[in-house]
Design brief:
This protein has 495 residues and is of the alpha/beta class. It contains 15 helices and eleven strands. The protein starts with 8 loop residues before the first helix and ends in a 10-residue tail after the last helix.
């Protein structure tokens, strides 16, 4: 039965429709794998009753001749998505006990397509982190190991639980969110595929907000085809989200031909960073060759404002976070601190937030409050907004010159050990996002594809950045890269 969990979404879909397997069997196999994998810390709220109910309903739909794309497919949902009647905590103590009475638009769409929810997945608190070490549930652990070393490694963040669960075959796919790389970096660290669509392609309604102009939901899957299937189900206009685009959703899977002849791929010279490991450089060069062999034209391009991307991101994202997190005050929902005799409302706010928010969230809220304050608004926040416009223009100029997609590394290194960055300057951790944040600042689609292993046997990913709203074209280029790379390695089971 456990082999069932190794199935990809596309093959499970075909097997379900052919009657070779039932959703109940698939779901039971996944639930068994989840119960045996507590050491990974991936699932934080298991929902076996809901899963079995949905699986039986899916089997009935298939039997009745109605089988939408995800009918009967067991998946995990990041704890950032509100799910009706199920704890939705954003991995934060401040939302302890919060069970929404509504469904996020994305999870609603997935359930309409017949998906089965196995449970909620671990993440960095409020999606703030690159290692899944800021969660109130404790760390999620990468199923991969460094050679014979049994050091627990990060699965990346913030969608660390999603990445670990998919890589370890606990579910067939998972949802993630990406504010500065939180789908693509963990996907690269765990040897899976993750795509962040164009800003506005997926509804943000019902997803706990971190930075509203940057957040975007996306799928985390075992390969590019599965990413295309899931993305199609997740996307579409939502009147409840004013930033949701009124655009038709193409058939992303049908666009996967693997034919990229005549496409132009840009290689940005600014992404060659000082101190970048040779393995990352070599993988990037290999990716370049693979796309050239597939018939693409490779050109060098310049994105001159890249060097300002990280500081710009770490002004804008905390500013929006401090504004979004002001609603957690201990009054309406979530945690409320106990007050002593004579304490008033200000004490309640202070105590509630001190108890409810972890150190990283507190740090970012304070940074955000500072850059939005009267004396510093122009010096920091307004300046960052102007630089963001310039970063976006760099990409627009590249695409206007005929570039179809841009190839870069996904991360500056392979997965590091949990705790290894703890004593480092927070900026060291933020450097994990150096290749990914530009994509969020410019609102573009980006996908991470596993492309090789480092000398310690850990997966490394390559990132492709596409034109806005052309996820289908981007996924097809990723599909060509995936086929050329031929990455099939899986972590050895130790949990």
């Amino acid at each position: 039965m456990t082999d069932l969990t190794k199935m990809k979404v596309a093959e499970a879909r075909d097997a379900l429709r052919a009657g070779d397997v039932t959703s109940v069997e698939l779901t039971e196999a996944c639930l068994g794998a989840i119960d045996a994998a507590d050491a990974l810390g991936a699932f934080v709220h298991k929902t076996p009753e809901i899963a079995m109910e949905q699986a039986k309903a899916a089997d009935a739909r298939i039997k009745g001749g109605e089988a939408p794309s995800l009918c009967g497919i067991p998946m995990g949902i990041k704890d950032l998505f509100c799910t009706r009647g199920v704890p939705s905590q954003a991995a934060s103590r401040i939302l302890e006990g919060f069970k929404p009475e509504y469904e996020s638009t994305v999870t609603g769409k997935l359930f309409d397509a017949g998906a089965v929810m196995l449970g909620k997945l671990n993440m960095d608190e409020f999606a703030m982190g690159s290692s899944n070490e800021t969660s109130c549930y404790g760390n999620a652990v990468n199923p991969w190991r460094r050679g014979n070393d049994d050091t627990a490694l990060t699965p990346g963040g913030s969608s660390g639980g999603s990445a670990a669960a998919v890589a370890a075959d606990l579910c067939l796919a998972a949802t993630g969110t990406d504010t500065g790389g939180s789908i693509r970096q963990p996907a690269a660290f765990t040897g899976i595929t993750g795509i962040k669509p164009t800003y506005g392609r997926c509804s943000r309604w019902g997803i706990v907000a971190f930075a509203s102009s940057l957040d975007q939901a996306g799928p985390m899957t075992k390969d590019v085809r599965d990413a295309a299937i899931l993305l199609q189900a997740m996307c579409g206009h939502d009147p409840k989200d004013s930033t949701s685009a009124e655009l038709a959703v193409p058939d992303f899977e049908a666009m996967l031909t693997g034919d990229i002849r005549g496409k132009t791929i840009g290689i940005p010279r600014e992404y060659h960073m000082d101190g970048m490991p040779d393995e990352i450089e070599a993988l990037w060069a290999r990716g370049r060759d693979m796309l050239a062999d597939a018939g693409a034209k490779i050109v060098d391009i310049s994105l001159p404002h890249t060097k300002y991307a990280l500081p710009t991101y770490y002004v804008i994202a905390p500013a929006e976070a401090s504004s979004n997190l002001a609603r957690y005050d201990g009054v309406r929902y979530g945690h409320r601190a106990r007050l002593s005799q004579g304490e008033g409302i200000n004490d309640m706010y202070e105590k509630t937030r001190a108890e409810g928010f972890g150190a990283e969230v507190q740090r970012r809220v304070m940074v955000g409050t500072y850059v939005l304050s009267a004396g510093f608004y122009d010096a920091y926040y307004n300046r960052a907004r102007k630089v963001r416009t310039l970063i976006k223009k760099d990409f627009e100029d590249a695409f206007a010159s005929g570039v179809d997609a841009i190839l870069t590394p996904a991360t500056p290194s392979a997965a590091f050990g949990l705790g290894e960055m703890q004593d480092a300057d927070p900026v060291q951790m933020y450097l994990n996002d150096v290749f990914t944040v530009t994509v969020n600042l410019a609102g573009l689609p980006g996908v991470s594809v596993p492309a090789g292993l480092d000398k310690q046997g850990l997966p490394l990913g390559l990132q492709l950045i596409g034109r806005p709203w052309e996820e289908g074209d981007l996924l097809n280029t990723a599909y060509a890269l995936e086929r050329a790379a031929g990455f099939v390695e899986k972590p050895a089971k130790w949990w």
